[in-house]
Amino acid sequence: MKNEIKNGFMANLPISVSVFTYGAVLGIICTSKGISFLQLALMNIFIFAGSAQFLIVDMLSNPINISIIIWSALLINLRYFLIGASLNEFFRNSSLKKKAFIMHFVTDESWAITMSKKDENLSVYFLLGGGLCIFIVWFLGTLSGYYFGEFISNPKLFGLDFAFLALFTAIITSMYKTKNDLVIYLFTAFIAVIFEKIIPNMSYIIISALSGSFLYVYLNKRSCNE
Fold first, then answer.
1. Residue 173, C-beta contacts closer than 8 angstroms, at least 6 positions apart
2. Per the UniProt record, which residue ranges are transmembrane (predicted)?
3. Which of 53, 73, 129, 137 is 20 to 30 Å from 66 by CA-CA measure?
4. Range of 146's domain?
5. One domain for residues 33 and 133
């Protein structure tokens, strides 16, 4: 178990630079919005969802009903239902408490790294190790941004706004194995672009993710039948 956690931690360490940078940006924004570090720390511990935290911080600084904030955060994180479903094999012999604990630390990055190595017969503790790595680095990033962000007046000048785009481009590239993967990537991106123009909120992310998932299932079933 300890070795699996360590291996998962180390496997996610290379991408932690981007995670740290993104966390620092959140810390900087919290400072400018008047969010206390205690509030930021509690969000890191109990929410631990980068995109949702950015949304919450932005909404907290505006006179918006709390129910709208909660609904918007849940909407953004609906993709974790898909992530959880894809990890069913890893959690097959796990208790409900263990599933809940480990899933709290699952991130897009740790999930992607784990799925890219799923042929290596990894256990759920590898996933946990990756999640803990991202959690620690994210917390340190937000801490640094909150207290030292005053030295960075404009994050875009340093390319910090591009950090996560570069990160996920690298992850998606590493997960590419067959022509079907390319078809799924392009199809999902196409759906996202189309619905982003039609739907006024973040629902297009869920729609494109579901569409890509259904296409993945269809293509894999067709490959098995050939």
1. none
2. 12-30, 37-56, 68-91, 124-145, 157-175, 182-198, 204-220
3. 137
4. 2-175
5. yes
Regarding whether 203 and 97 lie in a shared domain, the answer is no
Interatomic CA distance for residues 210 and 195, integer angstroms:
13
Name the CA dihedral angle for 216, 166, 204, 141, rounded to a multiple of 10 degrees: 120
Which of 160, 175, 190 is the last residue before a domain boundary? Answer: 175
Query: Token pair of 134, please?
Result: 């991202």
Task: Confirm if 172 and 189 have CB atoms less than 8 A apart.
Answer: no
Residue listed under structure tokens 């039948």 = 225
CA 21 to chain centre: 14
Could you tell me if 117 and 168 lie in one domain?
Answer: yes
182 in the same domain as 120: no
Whole-model pTM?
0.70
Is the Cβ–Cβ distance between 187 and 215 less than 8 Å? yes
Burial class (CB in 10 A: 0-12, 13-18, 19+), 24: buried
